[in-house]
């Protein structure tokens, strides 16, 4: 940044403690302002700031500091804010940006309104999530904010230039800037910062009053010292914070006290099950915090992650690999295991973000789940009626499967629930499950257009229905069958074309009979599930990328191990074989009711075909990569009857057509499919994935036959369905690298 123009001409920092001094020092170090002026109620500290190189000039009065400054930063104790605002009001220029660094934002906004009469669009409250138990101007550190978060809480009418300038200033210090509302900030900080400090102060104070206090502190383990370190923080500052954020802090204290009372009761009563449930839930939440809570916690936000795939053209695909476990079965194993009686053990569980979100959601509903560890999960089932009300919305990441299946399970629970997801999932239609569930008696509210979040009202009895699905969808079928477990009478679903039957097979494995009559599956409510062992096969949808890769790349020979061969999922193999692919099915076997095999695939001259419509539902998730195969084939490939593809994570037909066009490949999009003339040259270029993981991986495969480098934007969601894709692709010979945090 040193060679760039400063962002501000004159910055006044009021208060030269740890945060104010560190910010002033960082601004100077990175040349973010022409002049940094500091003021402190202790004139000697301001003078010392000049001597230490923290500030350029020491102001002896607030007028001297503020007059002529285009950015004024208040770094004073939050309880002193109003007095300081009153003092600087006469000297603050109307076009100056005003911000602060306080830990509570509602109180700052209230103080600004009290002094100025309104909240100017150029007032941008701020809060750096950084600190130290050290304090004072001597602790000032220009690197304090590097790799830390800074939260800004601009009002809806905030000045765009002011927000942009302040954001750039904080980013210039090395921080990552997030924005959120004032109220949400105070709620989040009460839980994640203020409560831990309160507990640390209280715990140290309590133990200091014990008779054995010297031995307690002398023999304390590292965990105690690490946790109670924050009790050495500035008492005056924290006194101010707790009083300024009173309401939010009281709410979280009450919640914590209630939970602590439950743990006390569990210990008193020898209730090991409750202890194990709480501890395992907390352990998992801590381990996967950044993944599973990203949609609701300020610490990380997957929608902010920018991951780009960079592909070099050409290569062949060789090796012996096993792709991750089947996502559909991983979801269902957690769901049914949680509702079963007894302990269910799962091997081969997919440790992707979506599956982990499902696992965490059941922990949030009181289910004890151990793991996952190397794909092994142990689920302590609570029975059909043992779920507990979650303490907040259930966040399901990017998974439409989870949201639609959860809606069926939760429709009959006695408690209210809310289902949320990431930005991509929040755009997807849920009316297709909400409408038939309402016909069964469920009360479900959706956002505009039938989209998430889904709010499900508890305590409504369900009645079985017969439902003729207008469009083949395994998710809709599974949703209604799961709701049918709780419904009065028989619930039956007729599908217009075969879809994957993992739910039916797994229900049978858990001892719950599913009656099948042609295209109709039905269940009778009121039964129970009995725990069992599950071995999740490798996901054929994940294998599909490598099946196509080895088919289109010259001199390829690849073996894929333990692939699920469910008859409702093998459309991709059937279609590729009709196109001339060389795929051998080896070592066929049945494990846990699901057929499994090893697949060997070698290079082949593919030819275009009219894809049989009866195969479309059996390959609905694999068409993006099949479009790449069609582009490399000789002759024309025609897809019809694939309306379902237009309401996936993206409009997959149009997004694939746009991506191919960006690489110089012409296609014809139809209302229910696409026409691709094979044999066209795949050039280099930039492809927009629209945050759809299958689009990203499909164009990674296309690079094998490209004539130039390919760049694929917005690939962060690949981790949700196929963890380890990039490493596995490299291992087999695909020339892929990533930019950004993956």
TrEMBL record:
It is found in: Cytoplasm. Keywords: Amino-acid biosynthesis, Aromatic amino acid biosynthesis, Cytoplasm, Oxidoreductase, Transferase. It catalyses: 3-phosphoshikimate + phosphoenolpyruvate = 5-O-(1-carboxyvinyl)-3-phosphoshikimate + phosphate. Residues 9-297 form the Prephenate/arogenate dehydrogenase domain. 3-phosphoshikimate binds at residues 327-328, 332, 473, 475, 621, 648. Its EC number is 2.5.1.19. Phosphoenolpyruvate binds at residues 327, 400, 428, 475, 652, 694. NCBIfam families: aroA, PRK14806.1. Belongs to the EPSP synthase family. This is 3-phosphoshikimate 1-carboxyvinyltransferase. It comes from Marinobacter alkaliphilus. The lineage of its organism: Bacteria, Pseudomonadati, Pseudomonadota, Gammaproteobacteria, Pseudomonadales. The gene is aroA.
